[in-house]
Each structure stands twice: as C-alpha cells, then as structure tokens.
Amino acid sequence: MTDDLIARLSADLKPVPPMAMQRRLVLAAIVGLVIAILGAWFILHMLLGRPMGETFGGAMFWVKAGYTLAFGLVGLAALPVLARPDGRVLWPLLAAAALLLVALSLGTMNWMRTDWAMLELMGNTAMVCPWLITLTGAPVLAVLLAALRAMAPRSPAMAGFAAGLIAGGLGAAVYSFYCGETSMMFMAVWYSLGIFIVAALGAVLGRLLLRW
C-alpha cells in the first residue's frame, strides 16, 4: 500500500530543470535591481535633485562599487544553499564580517592621516546615507523574498539575511552613483550601516514570511 501511495503521489511530478532555483533567484535579483535603478533615479535625481555620476570614474567610486557589490555577491552565492530544506552555511556571515573589518581598517588608517578630521567620517550626508541605501535596496529585497516564498529554507531568518545582503549591496551600489562622498571612512561606516540595516530587515521579514 505504501508503494502504491508513493506511486500515485509521484505520478504527475515533472522533472525540475537543472539550476532552476539559481536562475529564479538571479532573475529576482535582476528584476529588483532594475526597479531600484528606476526608483533611485526618480527619488534621488528627480525629487531630491542629486546629480547622477558626480564621482563616476574616480578611484573612490570604484572602491565603493567593488565594496558594495562584494556584499551582493556573497549573499547571492549563499542564498541558493540557504533556500533549501537542508541548507546550512555560515561562511556568508564570516565573509561579510571580513569585508567590514577590512573596510574599517583601511578607513581608520586614512582617517588617522587626516588627523581625525570629522569631515572624513561624517561627510555631508552621514545622517541620510544609510536610510537612502535602505530605501534603494528595498525593491531588491521585496522581489527576492517573493521568490523565496516558493522555496523551503531550513532557516527562514538566514535565508532572509542572505537576501538582505544581496539587496543591501546592490542598493548601495546604485546609491553610489548619486553620492558625492569620497572618504574611505565614510564608506566603511555609513555604507556598511545601510547594507546591514537591509540585511537585518531581511532576516526579520524572512523569519515572518518564509516559515513553512
């Protein structure tokens, strides 16, 4: 009887294409990124009047781009594993912590060379930078969480955290096109804060929305 039941339950199953989960998550990240780019252009450029690409091509622009995208890639590499019922991996937390530590170390060295000038730390936009990154990353997080609803992560909070790393990293990368700050210490503190706000938000929402 058990064999008959298994046969009936599996009779209508269709084979899943290879890498289907990975493709779905990458597609979700791309869709969210497009929405984030359009939203940033409307809010930051059209409403707030920030010029786009003010620091484009400068050394610090590429440092910010590399730093923020690194967080996104860490999350994107971990999320397909964490989205599975048997998925368990801790290296994304270690990689994110290592990225933060390197940025803070380099930022502190540069800040020390300027005799601890507060402008190096605060710039002109410290109080809004993390929140604008959160706003810019929110569409990416929303689309990724929607995609994860069709999956069964072992730890909804960890899956949400990884989705938040992707969203925070991509959101911060988009925001960097509208940011005129050129201090390493500013990036290490305020960009990192924005990314981890989105990651924490992803963990909380994942725990609530991805339970099964």
Could you characterize what this model shows?
The chain is mainly alpha-helical. It has one domain. The protein is 74% helix and 0% strand. α3 (59-82) runs parallel beside α8 and α4 packs antiparallel against α8. The mean pLDDT is 90.
Concise account of the structure shown:
The protein has about 210 residues and is an all-alpha fold.
Round the Cα radius of gyration to an integer and report it.
20 Å
CA distance, first residue to last residue: 28 Å
Number of domains: 1
Portion of residues in helices? Answer: over 70%
Q: Specify the structural class.
A: mainly alpha
Largest sheet: none
Estimate what percentage of residues fall within beta strands: under 5%
Poorly predicted spans: none
Order of helices and strands: HHHHHHHH
Shape field: globular
The overall pLDDT average reads 90
What's the number of extended β-strand segments? Answer: 0
Number of helices: 8
What structural keywords apply?
212 residues; mainly alpha; globular
Which secondary structure elements does this structure contain, and how are they paired or packed?
Layout: H1 2-10, H2 20-47, H3 59-82, H4 91-113, H5 118-122, H6 129-148, H7 156-176, H8 184-209
Helix pairs in contact: 2-6, 2-7, 3-4, 3-7, 3-8, 4-8, 6-7, 6-8, 7-8
